[in-house]
Amino acid sequence: MTTIVGTPRLAARGLDAGYPGRRVIEGLDLEVSPGRITMIIGANACGKSTLLGVLARLRAPLGGLVELGGVDASTLSRRRFAQTVGLLPQHPTAPDGLSVAELVARGRHPHRGVFRRWSAADSAIVDEAMARTGVSELADRPVGDLSGGQRQRVWIAMALAQDPQILLLDEPTTFLDLSHQLEVLDLLRELNRTRGTTIVVVLHELNLAARYADELIVMSQGRIVAHGAPAAVLTPEVVAEAFSLDALVIPDPLTATPLVIPVPGGAHVHGDAEQDHAPTVRNEK
C-alpha cells in the first residue's frame, strides 16, 4: 500500500487540465506551502476552479500529475486521499430530506472502515464542527429548507468534520453577506492557526484574499502569473495582467495588506470577454 511520508505537501507537476477538446491549463507547476493559507485569484474562466478540481481529484489531469506528500496522488485510494484532503466545491448538493446533522456527519465517512462503528469521538467532532460554524441550532432542519448562507455554513461544517490536514474550498463565501463572509474567513484562519491545517481557497474578492492569505496565487488564462506574499504579488501590473483592470494598490489602513482600488474607466476588454468578467473588488473597512 502506498503511504504518505512526512508533512503532506500538495503539488502539481507539469499539469495539463481541462475538458475533452479544450485544455484550460497546460504545463502548470505549483507547490502549496504546508500549514499556510493560500488564496487563488483571477478573472472568471482563467482556470481557478479547474485547478482546484484536479488538486482535489474530482477530475483526472490530462497530463502531468498531482502529488501528495511526494507521492503520486493517483496511486492513493480515495479513502486514504480523503483522510488527508477535504474539499468544499462551488455548488455542492445534498439529497432531498437530509438533515443538517446527517450531512455534517458524512464528513466522517473517510475515517470509518467497513467494520468501524460510529463512535462517541465521531459525534464529538461533528458537534464541534457545527458549533464552530454556528449551525448547531439547525441540526434537525432539512438542508433544502435553509437559506443560501445557512447552507454554505453547513457545508463548511461537513468539511471541518472530515478533519483534513489540507482543506480546499471553491468560493466558500458564495451567498453570504459581508459579515458572514468575514465570519467564514475568520473561521478558516482560526483553523489554520490552531490546527495547522493547510488551506487553499479560490476567492473572487481581491481585498479579502489579500487580507486573509499568507500566499496569493494569481492566475490568467490557465497559467500562474504570480505566486507569493500578498504585498509582493498584488501590484498594479499583476492586476492589469490578470484582470485587464487599471487599479491603484495601497496599504489597507487597518491591516496594511494590499488594497485594490479600481481606476474609473480602467477596465479593458479581452478577446475572451464573453467568458471573463471583472473581479468583485470590495474596499473592506
UniProtKB/TrEMBL annotation:
<dbReference type="Pfam" id="PF00005">
    <property type="entry name" value="ABC_tran"/>
</dbReference>
<keyword id="KW-0408">Iron</keyword>
<dbReference type="InterPro" id="IPR017871">
    <property type="entry name" value="ABC_transporter-like_CS"/>
</dbReference>
<protein>
    <submittedName>
        <fullName>ABC transporter ATP-binding protein</fullName>
    </submittedName>
</protein>
<dbReference type="InterPro" id="IPR003593">
    <property type="entry name" value="AAA+_ATPase"/>
</dbReference>
<keyword id="KW-0472">Membrane</keyword>
<keyword id="KW-0547">Nucleotide-binding</keyword>
<feature type="domain" description="ABC transporter">
    <location>
        <begin position="5"/>
        <end position="246"/>
    </location>
</feature>
<dbReference type="GO" id="GO:0016887">
    <property type="term" value="F:ATP hydrolysis activity"/>
</dbReference>
<dbReference type="GO" id="GO:0006826">
    <property type="term" value="P:iron ion transport"/>
</dbReference>
<dbReference type="GO" id="GO:0005524">
    <property type="term" value="F:ATP binding"/>
</dbReference>
<keyword id="KW-0813">Transport</keyword>
<dbReference type="InterPro" id="IPR027417">
    <property type="entry name" value="P-loop_NTPase"/>
</dbReference>
<dbReference type="InterPro" id="IPR003439">
    <property type="entry name" value="ABC_transporter-like_ATP-bd"/>
</dbReference>
<keyword id="KW-0406">Ion transport</keyword>
<keyword id="KW-0410">Iron transport</keyword>
<keyword id="KW-0067">ATP-binding</keyword>
<keyword id="KW-1003">Cell membrane</keyword>
<dbReference type="GO" id="GO:0005886">
    <property type="term" value="C:plasma membrane"/>
</dbReference>
<dbReference type="InterPro" id="IPR051535">
    <property type="entry name" value="Siderophore_ABC-ATPase"/>
</dbReference>
